[in-house]
């Protein structure tokens, strides 16, 4: 007879909260709903062992959870109500899927007995989320809550990481069962095949113009350090994938730029000249491959592709060598390895010179030279700053003119979801309240989820949000001017005074209209120790960092 005590009888809501606790969850982000009142009561029962963060909008809650997943490598957790709540949350699920971020979304479901009656707020989540998530399940037996939650966390972190969706009906939250909690399994990461490192070094020894493309998720600081040291010791030129600037120190002489939306045309041309591609972690998706045009799908340019999910190897571009491995384990196998001769050193210097040339600020007209302002700000930013970045034309300015260093993080949605940066900044600040968190967002994106700054006040954290305001949906206006010069339709915006808006919340607001004003405004914002918004009023005519509206019109049509 076992000496272990029988598990206590618990409600499904309590069981779910404790199942999350058993998986090591420290934070959950939620907009409350009547469909999961018993789960909320379960969180009350577990007390402060999980911090339940109350958000203002379901998309914002999931963006916060997704930022948590990016920063920790563990699944971020969001909890939303059925129907409209789940629909709002789907934006964040799509971000997590395309960004390969581990995430668990829990949805309160209609009463089980009302299924298929088009009940109030009824949705079949298996069908709704099937193309957006790695796995979707519904709990129809309260006794299986620990099992299904544990499996959800395993799926979210296995292979290519991503989101999992769990629906739980009202009855299952109320049923009382006596089952044990299930903790996380100890699963060793997949290591590269024994011959992988030698095969890579052999390919490098035969190369004249190699290029590294870094991407992927769940990198640890040790893994990033190992891959950095390997690239530096072998003087390999390194690019990063779309919104992956945090993976490599941009100040090192081996960093040559980012491959993504708005990549510098000269760099793209040089990539076509490479005779060996080391694609480490990246899926070589649409943005990185410049619309699937950068490489020959049949493998004309030799590609060594490393990814934790074998199904991603050769998904579009046939690799000369595919390696299935955890990225950090792979990086560890390269420690201390170097080639005897590096005929590509001149190639690396040339690519780096192009990068430095591109980072030189042009003489933009007007009182605000945004490039110079950002580079002055860069000198003020702490070494461990976390950046969150929204989608939009404004994002190409920091991509071009800023250089992240080793300890800094850069979180951005590779699916181009507007409204990401503010909630992600709040979520990052909640996880790391002692670090400087800077959210970069356009006026359009801020209008979508800027209300989540209220969550920052409630949580007692103080991110600094830079709002790049040109009173338009700038990316769409750019494309509009190219295709239909001068025919402006549907892209103009009327905005509030953003500095006064954050003041109404009780925060710190600044307005910047000239180059020399940004650094003092940032200093005052940090000194306030309050959630802050710095509105940077940019010239609407300078719609991109490379072209004005007049230039686009001259080129367009």
Question: Can you summarize this structure?
Answer:
The protein has 557 residues and is an alpha/beta fold. It has 21 helices and 20 strands. It folds into 3 domains: 168 residues, 3-Layer(aba) Sandwich (Rossmann fold); 158 residues, TPP-binding domain (Rossmann fold, 3-Layer(aba) Sandwich); 195 residues, Rossmann fold, CATH 3.40.50.970.
Residues in helix, %: 25-40%
Domains, number: 3
Shape: globular
Report the oligomer. single chain
Could you name the ranges where pLDDT drops below 50 across 5 or more consecutive residues?
none
CATH classification class of the largest domain:
Alpha Beta
Q: Tell me the major beta sheet.
A: 6 strands, parallel
Secondary-structure content class: alpha/beta
Number of helices, counting only DSSP H or I runs of 4 residues or more: 21
Task: Please tell me the CATH architecture of the largest domain by its name.
Answer: 3-Layer(aba) Sandwich
- The CATH homology group name of the largest domain: Thiamin diphosphate (ThDP)-binding fold, Pyr/PP domains
Query: How many β-strands, per DSSP?
Result: 20
Give the termini separation: 82 Å
Strand content: 15-25%
Rg result: 24 Å
At the fold tier of CATH, the topology name of the largest domain is Rossmann fold
Please give the order of strands in the largest beta sheet. Answer: 3-2-4-5-7-6
Task: Give the overall average pLDDT.
Answer: 95
Topology:
Blueprint: E1 10-11, H1 12-22, E2 27-30, H2 37-46, E3 51-54, H3 58-72, E4 76-80, H4 84-99, E5 103-109, H5 125-129, E6 135-139, H6 145-157, E7 163-169, H7 170-174, E8 176-177, H8 196-205, E9 210-214, H9 221-233, E10 238-240, E11 255-258, H10 265-273, E12 276-280, E13 303-307, E14 321-324, H11 327-333, H12 345-358, H13 370-378, E15 386-389, H14 396-401, E16 409-411, H15 421-431, E17 437-442, H16 443-449, H17 453-459, E18 464-469, H18 474-483, H19 498-505, E19 508-512, H20 518-528, E20 532-537, H21 549-555
Helix pairs in contact: 1-2, 1-6, 3-4, 3-15, 9-11, 15-17
């Amino acid at each position: 007879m076992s000496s272990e005590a029988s598990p206590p009888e618990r409600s499904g809501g309590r069981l779910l909260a404790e199942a999350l606790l058993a998986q090591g969850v420290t934070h959950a982000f939620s907009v409350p709903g009547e469909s999961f009142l018993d789960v909320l009561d379960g969180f009350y029962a577990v007390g402060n062992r999980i911090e339940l963060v109350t958000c203002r909008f379901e998309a914002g809650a999931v963006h916060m959870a997704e930022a948590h997943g990016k920063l920790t490598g563990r699944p971020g957790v969001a909890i939303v109500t059925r129907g409209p709540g789940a629909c709002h949350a789907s934006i964040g699920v799509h971000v997590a899927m395309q960004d390969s971020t581990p995430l668990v979304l829990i949805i309160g479901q209609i009463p089980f007995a009302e299924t298929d009656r088009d009940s109030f707020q009824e949705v079949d989540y298996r069908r709704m989320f099937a193309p957006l998530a790695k796995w979707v399940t519904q709990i129809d037996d309260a006794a299986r809550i620990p099992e299904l939650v544990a499996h959800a966390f395993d799926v979210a972190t296995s292979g290519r990481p991503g989101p999992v969706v769990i629906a739980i009906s009202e009855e299952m939250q109320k049923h009382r069962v006596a089952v044990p909690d299930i903790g996380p399994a100890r699963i060793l990461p997949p290591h590269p095949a024994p011959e992988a490192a030698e095969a890579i070094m052999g390919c490098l020894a035969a190369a004249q113009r190699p290029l590294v493309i870094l991407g992927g998720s769940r990198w640890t600081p040790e893994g990033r350090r190992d891959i950095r040291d390997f690239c530096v010791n072998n003087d390999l030129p390194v690019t990063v994938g779309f919104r992956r600037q945090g993976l490599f120190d941009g100040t090192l002489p081996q960093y040559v730029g980012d491959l993504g939306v708005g990549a510098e045309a000269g760099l793209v041309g040089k990539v076509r000249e490479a005779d060996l591609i080391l694609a480490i972690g990246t899926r070589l998706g649409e943005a990185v491959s410049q619309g699937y045009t950068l490489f020959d799908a049949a493998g004309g340019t030799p590609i060594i592709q490393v990814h934790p999910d074998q199904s991603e190897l050769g998904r579009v571009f046939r690799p000369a060598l595919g390696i299935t491995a955890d990225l950090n384990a792979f990086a560890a196998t390269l420690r201390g390895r170097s080639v005897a001769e590096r005929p590509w050193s001149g190639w690396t210097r040339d690519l780096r010179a192009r990068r430095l040339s591109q980072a030189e600020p042009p003489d933009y007209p007007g009182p605000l030279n945004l490039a110079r302002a950002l580079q002055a700000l860069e000198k003020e930013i702490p070494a461990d700053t976390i950046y969150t970045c929204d989608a939009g034309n404004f994002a190409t300015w920091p991509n071009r003119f800023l250089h992240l260093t080793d300890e800094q993080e850069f979180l951005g949605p590779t699916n181009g979801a507007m409204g990401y940066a503010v909630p992600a900044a709040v979520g990052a600040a909640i996880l790391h309240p002692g670090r400087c968190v800077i959210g970069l967002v356009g006026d359009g994106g801020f209008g979508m989820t800027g209300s989540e700054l209220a969550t920052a006040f409630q949580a007692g954290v103080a991110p600094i949000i830079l709002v790049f305001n040109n009173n338009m949906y700038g990316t769409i206006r750019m494309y509009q001017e190219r295709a239909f010069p001068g025919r402006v339709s549907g892209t103009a915006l009327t905005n509030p005074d953003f500095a006064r808006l954050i003041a109404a919340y009780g925060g710190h607001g600044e307005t910047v209209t000239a180059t020399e004003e940004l650094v003092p405004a940032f200093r005052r914002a940090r000194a306030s120790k309050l959630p802050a918004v710095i509105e940077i009023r940019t010239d609407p005519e300078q719609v991109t960092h490379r072209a004005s509206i007049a230039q686009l019109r001259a080129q367009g049509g």
